[in-house]
Amino acid sequence: MPSIVHGFDWPDRLVVGTIGRPGERTFYLQARSGKRVTSVTLEKEQTAVLAEKIDELLDEVATVEANRFSVPDTAPVELRDPEPLDQPVEPEFRAGALSLGFDPSTAQVVIEAYPIDDDDVEIVSEESEDGIEIEAVVEIPEPDELFQVKIPVGTARAFVERTREIVAAGRPPGDA
Description:
Oligomer: single chain
Shape: globular
Number of helices: 2
Strand content: 35-45%
Largest sheet: 4 strands, mixed
Helix content: 10-25%
């Protein structure tokens, strides 16, 4: 278990936001409970994939036979959060890895972010029988720090919607 855990169970707020101009933006995942605010830096690509995977997870949960979770198809209006990041933004770390899950006992989406440096990851290259080089991650060590947040399904839909808007607000894909 990491020695530092930034945990939020039913936070008042969970958002992705940016600081900077398009092309120079820094992305942040930020949670708030009461006066406690924690931010983690993300890459734009991580941000986009996180929204996509949460959306896929919610769609999958919604298809469960006798679904007791009432997963909304769209973000409930009252859960949408157009406000900027809480200031000051002081990130705890840059996320090197993200994980996603669902806790059926509370009907919450679980998002975890870990700081992982390239130096901490052992990558082994091998050549397959047909001569194609294959790279595989052998081991990722237990991180010292963890950002974990648990949000209900309606909040998760609103998070996905906002995150997609934030990602789309930058440079068009392919622009340098």
